[in-house]
Amino acid sequence: MTAHLEKLSLLLNRSLMAIAGVILVGMMTIACANVIMRSFCFPLKGTFELMGFFGSIIAAFALGKTQISQEHIAVDVLIRMFPQKLKLVAGSINCLIGIMFFVVAGWQTARWGINLQDVGEVSETLRIIYYPFVYCVSLGCMIIALVFLVDMLKLATSQKRTDL
Question: How many domains, the chain?
Fold first, then answer.
């Protein structure tokens, strides 16, 4: 069971990172084009909006991979001194809190997206609909909750995790 969930998690996170990479290239292209066009007094309309939308997707889609690779900031000065069993308990509690937080964050973000979709909210300059970007953030939250679940199951079975 854990192996199947881990494979699913890795596949989803690799896919999200690939999408985030493509979006990042698009962001860089838009930013460079805007700088060049500004020098000719023709800035690109809506650049600020697009950077915000794309940045939110990139950040949300990178959450799971960052957790898998343990590339986030961790302060474990006290935890390092714990015996192994207590480390496992602390790690499991951390994973459980992470699961609960990101499931609630993803659920509430999806509810916000539904509301935006219902009212037809669009961006100010380019008139782009908001809700697909909000749904992407919700997806990123749900995927990191899955990563925490896999981590918790691995801690429960004391397996080492497989990185991306």
Answer: 1
User: Does the reported pTM lie above 0.85?
Assistant: yes
Three-state helix/strand/coil letters over the chain:
CHHHHHHHHHHHHHHHHHHHHHHHHHHHHHHHHHHHHHHCCCCCCCHHHHHHHHHHHHHHHHHHHHHHHCCCCCCCCCHHHCCHHHHHHHHHHHHHHHHHHHHHHHHHHHHHHHHHHHHCCECCCCCCECHHHHHHHHHHHHHHHHHHHHHHHHHHCCCCCCCC
User: Does any domain span residue 161?
Assistant: no
Asked whether residue 163 is domain-assigned, the answer is no
The answer to the question of residue 162 being in a domain is no
Residue 78 lies in a domain: yes
Give residue-wise pLDDT tens across range 5-35: 999 999 999 999 999 999 999 999 999 999 9
Domain that holds residue 25: 2-156
